[in-house]
Request: fold
Amino acid sequence: MVSKDLGIRFTEEKYATKSEAGKELGISIVDNLWVSVLKYRDAFKRFLSIRSVDNNKLTLCLCPSVSDNISQLDFRLIHAYKQFSSIADEDLEYFKRKSYVECLKTLAKVRDIDVTDEYLLSIIDGGLKEAAPSHKILQNYFNALQYVEKAYVNPINDSFLANIYSRLIDQEELVSFYRTNDIKDHQNRVIIDRIYTAVPAKSIDAMMDSLFDFIENYNLSLASKAIITYYYFYYIKPFPEYNDELALLLTKAVIGHNGINEVGALLNLERLLGERLEENSKKSIEVQKTNDVTYFVNFGLTFFLDIVNEFVDSITESSATALKNDYYREDEIDEVEDLQVKEEEPISEPIEEKEEAPKEVEETEELAISRLPRALDEKEASRLEQDLLESDPNLKKGEAYFYARHCTMNHHYTIAQYKKALGCAYETARTSMENLVKFGYYRKEKIKNKFVYTPIRRK
Reply:
């Protein structure tokens, strides 16, 4: 019973390190007691597909408290996307510009670059053709951020990362990619309890390949996958420069690729660069010592949740402001109309009474169809998309995305619709629709002179 109590205390109440448990218990040697904590955690341990530089699999402890926090962040991310999707079209561009300003402002502060909101808007609006050398990183970062926003259906692989990196260093054609030299640091040379500030160059290719596979194929919730991606990329530091920014951009891409779309790019994750860096570093070191990534995930969950809540509050604030402006604008219109009526009123003169024509009974407009078509809302479609990807390894992300939003029985869909929905080439759209036929999602039919694709009922 005592063992279980210790497991709950140092896992559920607080996911403590061994040294933290010793301090709380007031003893210096806790080896025997710590065994009982690890035994409790073993029941919830999950081995991940990514490994440490020493080839040990990383683990994640999905105990009740951690799982609850992960679910909460997943829910808030979905809520954030739903709120974002409800922004009126005329206000959407304004809100996106505002969000980008906050992201760039945070990055500028971290890099000690003194700029105004107006300057940042000139970058976002394209009015600034060429930034000063000291400000160039802001312009390049925004270009990379825009790519992340728009390419949320493209597979995350080395080509995807190359597109981000080339924009960040402002080179259309990369002459080099991953670093080929080790980062010189005394910690990398310690033989016992080695802690890496960056993995050896010879390990980068294999570890990055495993990260891409983890992102695309490993079945894990959005929140935990995004945070682990951030940790693992930062642990590897695969490039000679800009690893901090690239870790953020890749994490935003993971969020966007998992049903949150362009919202991933708009979240102010840049705050990770400037706040609680010491705690960030301590949690990363603990993961290296134990191969338990839960230490970093737990830290990240709190931080990410704060950022997502801030994003939702910003939407609410923007909506309230827009509504208030609309309200006053309507009042002004009413006042103008009242004035116009008064000005146009003629002087009263007796007029000949005429027999009023009988008033026509106002009729409600009637639709020619007696039912409205059933369609999934974006939240349902995103859930279906995720389920398809998890249950059918044959499907590519773009195919799951399209089918989840085009699966109404007795409706017919076309290659052109796929091309438009995903913004891809015609041949890519054709191949994807043929794959969906091959895997039993649609049947291909010819109506008059064109082919259409009709959903097949599935369990």
Summary: Confidence is low (pLDDT under 50) at residues 186-193, 326-357. The first strand starts at residue 45 and ends at 51. Residues 294-344 form the longest helix (51 residues).
